[in-house]
Amino acid sequence: MKQTRMWQRTALAVAAAALLPGAAYAAEKVKVGLMLPYTGTYASLGNAITNGFKQYVAEQGGTLGGREVEYFVVDDESDPSKATENASKLVKRDDVDVLVGTVHSGVALAMAKVARDTKTLLIIPNAGADELTGPLCAPNVFRSSFSAWQPAYAMGKIVAESGHKNVVTVSWKYSFGEQSVAGFKEAFEKAGGKVAKELYLPFLNVEFQPYLTEIASLKPDAVFVFFAGGGAAKFVKDYDAAGLKKSIPLYGSGFLTDGTLDAMGGAGEGLMTTLHYADGLTNAKDAGFRGKYEATYKIEPDVYAVQGYDAAQMLRAGLDAVKGAKLDKAVMIKAIEAAKIDSPRGAFTLSKAHNPVQDIYLRKVEGRDNKLVGVAEKALADPARGCRML
Amino acid sequence: MDFVSFLIQILNSLQYGLLLFLVASGLTLVFGIMGIINLAHGSFYMVGAYLALALTSLTGNLMLAIALGIPLAFVFGALLEWLLFSHLYKRDHLEQVLLTYGLILIFEELRSLAVGDDVHGVAIPAIFSASIPLSENLSYPVYRIVISVVCLALAAGLYFLIQKTRLGMMIRAGSHDRDMVKALGIDINLLYRTVFALGVALAALAGMLAAPISSVYPGMGSSVLIISFVIVVIGGVGSVWGALVAALLIGFADTFGKVLVPDLAGLMVYLVMAGVLLWRPEGIFKKG
Fold first, then answer.
1. ipTM value for the complex
2. Which pLDDT belongs to residue A23?
3. Is residue B218 within 8 Å of B260, Cβ to Cβ?
4. Is A341 helix (H, G, I), strand (E, B) or coil?
5. Do B258 and A39 make contact, defined as CB atoms within 8 angstroms?
6. Residues in chain A with pLDDT < 70?
7. Which of A114, A358, B14, B215 could disulfide-pair with A87, CB 3.0 to 4.6 Å?
8. Which CATH number fits domain A23-146+280-350: 3.30.950.30, 3.90.470.20, 3.40.50.2300, 3.40.190.10?
């Protein structure tokens, strides 16, 4: 008896929905698959991105483009070998409308493959591998962060303009490090400088002493490095302890001094780096963003939180275009491509390859801040070499 | 490479080699003498570094932190041995691998819960914070030289302990024949507990000493684990002297590999290992 009544009710609901398509879609949720690292080395980055994303959704009253947001959260552990399975589960089992992830470039490359194969919308809130918006670009793949090339290229120009002619680079030997060095070299040599030697260490190796000795004997005008996390802190400390910081200026992509200044214990003071975010930006959007973030999460936001926040803004731009209607991917993609994202880092648009066209800032380490010095490159677009959408 | 840089690179090799010996010395005891495959050795190194971080912020002085940290690590090692490892001596190596691998995961998670995943730094004690100028633009931190001296002293101390003392004799006997040692009226359980605790304390000491120059960060233990095994295997399982020679060999291979054949820098250490093992499958100093 009870069962029959439920069937009747369901049938009635289906009939009503068929009669009023608009009303039914309006009540529909948007399913967001957050695939980010919540354990391991990159856990703090994954959490910051999630916080930023959810903050934007909360600011919109818990909805994006009139739709309630339903989260499906997966810890990707920054493990590329599990990436395809994790992303496929979100798409096939949970049937998410959009994938958001991730930090580690290797994992992001696997996610992009799943996204391309299943035509799912993907927004990458960090991973900087040039390929993602280069040779592997796709209509349904967007990035809210940066390409490895961008901050390094901007630094190449700055170092050349500072009058340095002869530079040695040091980095880990893996794709992100090599892409950073390539970006730096491109701009630096275009401006008349010369990269005297490119030094590489095996990935995550932190025994820098032999290279510091070599730098001392090569006597370049300046040194450009790409390191991040613990390796960045150790390199800067070793460089300082070897007495090189006084005689040979050190420059790097912003990752060198983001989240590592405490560990450097003062050795990083005065270092100049380039990134698409800085402490002490003067736009009102940033002030509001930082105030709310600190009030909600009781910690200071970082560049990763901004990238998460902007991933949500990009999704909203897409959803606004299909308000009250079916989630038409083609329409959403067009809308995101055309959107101007009002980011705390400063407003940006997206390139044809779907990477932010953004200002890269020159920053200087002062105490625990990466203080804004100026704009190194205005509206810098990644060249997206190898992308067929250009 | 000019002559001055060449000399400095030799200094770098020695210094790195001695630091590697410090890290591997605890493993020589536990793996070489007790025969336990201890994959968690790197975790003990990490525990040491985080102990240095916590105790330095508590006491304000790294040396005081190390003085407090060593007994703590020793007691911690003895507890672990009593709780877990003492059940494994008669078991298969596979079970030791499973247990110690499990410990790696547990220690990493606990660290993440307790301290978080940020990178931290520990200050070099003020009296060692100076640098000695070596060439016109390069100087050498005094603290690195202090570490080298400590490593040499430890190597000598360990050699003396194992080769020349009664305790060392019992340890060596125990590694050959547990039952016979027991039959002679020696408390083999206590003996093994002591050796294991000593191994943990050495790994933790390495972590504490290295903390100011390496920074303190998630996953730092795994970076030293493999190299420690390489050293113990090259040196000859169970030989402290062999571990010292192997550590210096690796120090030289790594440093000059980076300078002379940078493209193969990551491979150099393992080429040396393969070469040594082809020449002496038992390691350089394995005794019959």
1. 0.85
2. 44
3. no
4. strand
5. no
6. 1-27
7. A114
8. 3.40.50.2300
